[in-house]
Amino acid sequence: MSILSFPERGQGGDSTYRGNCSPKVYEWLVQETRARSLLDPVMGGGTSLDVALRLGLKASGSDLSTSPYHQRLKARLERQGARVELGVDATRTDLAALFGQHDLVVAHPAYGTQIVYGSGEGDMSQLGDGDAFLDALQAMTLNMREATTDGGYYVVIIGDTRKQGRYHSYQGPLLGMLPASELRAVRIKAQHNVSSAKQDYGRVRFGLTLHEYVLILQKELPFFQAFGEVVKAQQARLTGTWKAIVRQALTQLGGRADLDTLYDHVFRSAPDRVKQNPNFKAKVRQTLQLLPECQPEERGIWRLAAA
């Protein structure tokens, strides 16, 4: 099924812990991956570990928090046979060295600032919606990947947020930071009984956001080969961005322009890209050569070929 919808929460974890995920999602993941061991590096209320223990899996988990709540949770889970470590920053910790490798490594991290869990360093709920959060999310996921057995699965459950009229989606940027060849599925998880659905926001254009994504990847490449694939994909996207900038600039200039006019238009329309590449004029010339629809009319003058 492509949409996971479990109106009844199921058994396990703490239903009062804000942001917790239905135990039935973890049951489905264990069933689909046929895992024999599970690691959750941001375990929150412990739902994933409760499910793993009930299904007879080796269960390991960690959390950044060392609060009395998590101390009690750690004691309970360890009595049942799990291994739990607290005070662990999943974005900076070698999870494989700490826990060894597991068949299924799954995380439902804090995202956005809708639920702030703490104030310490490494708390992803404090990082907002920008590059700092995405960098931390990538770091956590790559640490998860290294703690996954060869052929095992690493899974991130994450949603979208809307704040001050702006919509933020994290799953797309995250997948762009991971090896594309390892992606096995993206499933939509319907959210039920969330506190935001009970609040009156007035009229929200396009409706409330009541879903999350379940991103399922399977580890199959050595780390440096996988990371090389990511870098290659990012370079291809950057090249594609420059192609779009130059093509659009030439279009807006009427389909024909000399280089100085084109440089000026690119400088004004794409200042962020220009700032990242001080030698942007050479980049514009290189991009013109790469675009088959851009043709030199005479020295220093380019035009878009007729469709």
From TrEMBL:
Q: Which domain of life is it from?
A: Bacteria
Q: Which SUPFAM superfamilies does this chain map to? A: S-adenosyl-L-methionine-dependent methyltransferases
Enumerate the Gene3D superfamilies for this protein: Vaccinia Virus protein VP39
Name the InterPro entries for this protein: SAM-dependent_MTases_sf
Q: What is this protein called?
A: DNA methylase
Query: What species does this protein belong to?
Result: Deinococcus terrestris
